[in-house]
Amino acid sequence: MLTEKFTFKLDLKKLDLSRVFNGANGAQYLDFEAVPTTASKYGDSHFIVQRQTKEERLAKAQRLPICGSVKPPYQPAGTTHQSAAPSRPSAPASDRSPPRQPAPPAGPPDDINF
């Protein structure tokens, strides 16, 4: 389970509200995509665009404008964000238990006393 929290910002003035669609129980939705980026001068990991329809994607229509950004959880300077499962902090060497030894092979012992 991921425990990291990402923050999102959307510019509501850039949304195409004609793309709102109805869901179950009267809910209304807009589809978005978060596209990875490494070119952000503000520390964002992704930019957000409204999702194209299947027909638009097949016709290779121009993407809708960027309407927001995603900022990853705090990262100390000099580190990069990884989207995979979060790693656990390493325990100090004094707190680590020794590595486990492999189990002996199953089968009869080499030395049988009768």
Structural overview:
The chain has 114 residues and is mainly beta. The protein has a domain of 72 residues. The protein has 1 helix and 6 strands. The strands form 2 sheets. Strands 1-6-5-4 form a 4-stranded antiparallel beta sheet, with no helix packed on it. A hairpin with a 5-residue loop joins strand 2 and strand 3. It is globular. It starts with 6 loop residues before the first strand and ends in a 43-residue tail after the last strand.
> What string, H for helix and E for strand, traces the elements in order?
EEEEEHE
Strand order across the largest sheet: 1-6-5-4
Beta-strand portion reads: 15-25%
What separation lies between the terminal Cα atoms? 55 Å
User: Which stretches are low in confidence, meaning pLDDT under 50 for 5 or more residues running?
Assistant: 83-90
The major pleated sheet works out as: 4 strands, antiparallel
* Number of helical segments with 4 or more residues: 1
Roughly what is the average pLDDT, rounded to an integer? Answer: 75
Helix content: under 10%
Silhouette: globular
Total beta strands: 6
Radius of gyration: 26 Å
Structural class: mainly beta
What order do the helices and strands come in, and which of them pair?
Blueprint: E1 7-10, E2 21-22, E3 28-29, E4 32-36, E5 46-50, H1 54-58, E6 66-71
Antiparallel strand pairs: 1-6, 2-3, 4-5, 5-6
In short:
This protein has 114 residues and is mainly beta. It contains one helix and six strands, in the order βββββαβ. About 7% of the residues have low confidence.
